[in-house]
Amino acid sequence: MANESGIGKQTVVGAFVVGGLALALGAIIFFGNVSLFSKSSRAVIVFQDSVSGLSVGAPVTFRGVRVGSVDSLTLRYDPASLHAYIPVNISLDPKQVHMMQEAGSSSHGLDLTDAIAHGLRAEQNVQSFVTGTVNINLDFYPGSPAVLHPHVSDLTEIPTHVSAIQKIKESLQDLPLKELSDNANEAVLSIREVAQKLDVDVPPLVASLRQSSQDSQETLRAATRAINDLQGKLDTTLVNMDRLMRTSNAQLEARGADLHQTLSSATNATDQARKTLESVQGMLSPRSSDRDNLDSALRDIAAAAASLRGFASDVERNPQLLLMGRQR
């Protein structure tokens, strides 16, 4: 009975161990992405820049199609050249890559060496900008130089290609962020100083402009009042001048009539005197000196009479000649 009990216990323990091993193997297969029934191709990718975000188990894709995964990441340092290398071992699943064959030709698997010769390259690709996770993407870049590191690993090496994201990261790393930050701080300080100066200088300037505006308005109002007063005085002056002109015209007309009458009387007197002198001339001898003097006097009197007659005609036509005189 004791032997049968011991054998039963050993059976239970053995079954428990076998079950644990089965669970462990299932976990390895499930979580470790291990395929027991397919033969995978292994290769290495050697990076010399940062592989931050890349981890074991990260997918290896070809234009978005998963074709494998990352097996390991190690660091190799060469003290002779002072260079650090990061070999990333990957496994490629042949079931994910199907080679297209012509009719009648024999099928064969993926030839990495031939694909590398035709431009197959590997690059780091950011999966998420939030988490920073990175995977490896494979693609063909014909003409891209194939830089190999045969002393780093014995596996078939897929050359690297700098991705657009890596170029942006390198460009950002090359930026003088400290200088840009210092310049930005100086610019902010300068703007702050200008703002403070404006706070100090602008209010007095605004007050001065406001006072100047008020003074200008007051000057304009004073000028308007002066113009209105001057306009009233000019109206009064014009009225007075018009009245004076009318009065002057009336006086000139009255004086013109009197002067005309005077000139007419003088003309009549001159005619009478001429007639008298003519009578006297008839009494005098033509050869006497008195006769010569009398002839000269008659000529002067005739000329004076003609002048008075012309002046009387001019005054009669324009009575203002008495005030303004003749315009030369």
Automatic annotation (TrEMBL):
One of the Pfam families matching this protein, by short name: MlaD
Domain Mce/MlaD residues, every copy: 46-139
Coiled coil: none
Spans through the membrane: 12-32
Record keywords: Membrane, Transmembrane, Transmembrane helix
InterPro entries per the UniProt record, alphabetical: Mce/MlaD (IPR003399)
Domain of life where this protein originates: Bacteria
Protein name according to UniProt: Paraquat-inducible protein B
Species assigned in the record: Acetobacter oeni
